[in-house]
Amino acid sequence: MRRFYLDGAVVGLEAVAVSPTAACPGCGRRSDRVHGRYQRQLMDAPVGGRQVRLLLVVRRFFCDNVACAKKAYAEQVDGLTVRFGRQTALARAMLQAIALAGGGRPASVWRAGWRCR
């Protein structure tokens, strides 16, 4: 973790993924050749009544398997991120539980209140 901060009703965490390799989602082969980096913003489960915003720096890797259709891919942090996901696994599970309990309406209101800034 690089930084932790409080901004009103928001708890912010900034972190960097540090695994030396990442597996290609196309062929499963691991690579250590870094293509670049970018920052992802994820919503996590609330803590102490405050929203949690996770800013995660992840890397893109080259796939060295010539038979694989993927040439580059982004690393995923096990148990935390999924492709194109904007919530952590815990936040996604909470959102699904709220949606099922209320027929969908409470979850749409709760999610609409959270914005990345």
Structure description:
The protein is an alpha+beta fold and 117 residues long. The chain has one domain (3-112). The protein has helices spanning 89-102, 105-112; strands spanning 3-7, 10-16, 22-23, 30-31, 34-47, 50-62, 72-74. Strands 1, 2, 5, 6 and 7 form a five-stranded mixed sheet that branches. Helix 1 packs across helix 2 (105-112). The longest helix is centred in the last third of the chain and has 14 residues, at 89-102. The protein starts with a strand and ends in a 5-residue tail after the last helix. The model has no long low-confidence stretch (mean pLDDT 85).
How are the SSEs placed, and which strands pair?
Layout: E1 3-7, E2 10-16, E3 22-23, E4 30-31, E5 34-47, E6 50-62, E7 72-74, H1 89-102, H2 105-112
Parallel strand pairs: 2-6
Antiparallel strand pairs: 1-2, 3-4, 5-6, 6-7
Helix pairs in contact: 1-2
Low-confidence stretches: none
Number of discrete domains: 1
Q: Any idea what the shape is?
A: flat
Average pLDDT across residues?
85
SSE order in H/E notation?
Answer: EEEEEEEHH
Seen as an oligomer or otherwise, the chain set is: single chain
Radius of gyration over all CA atoms, rounded: 17 Å
User: Number of DSSP helices?
Assistant: 2
Class by alpha and beta content: alpha+beta
Helical percent range?
A: 10-25%
Strand content: 35-45%
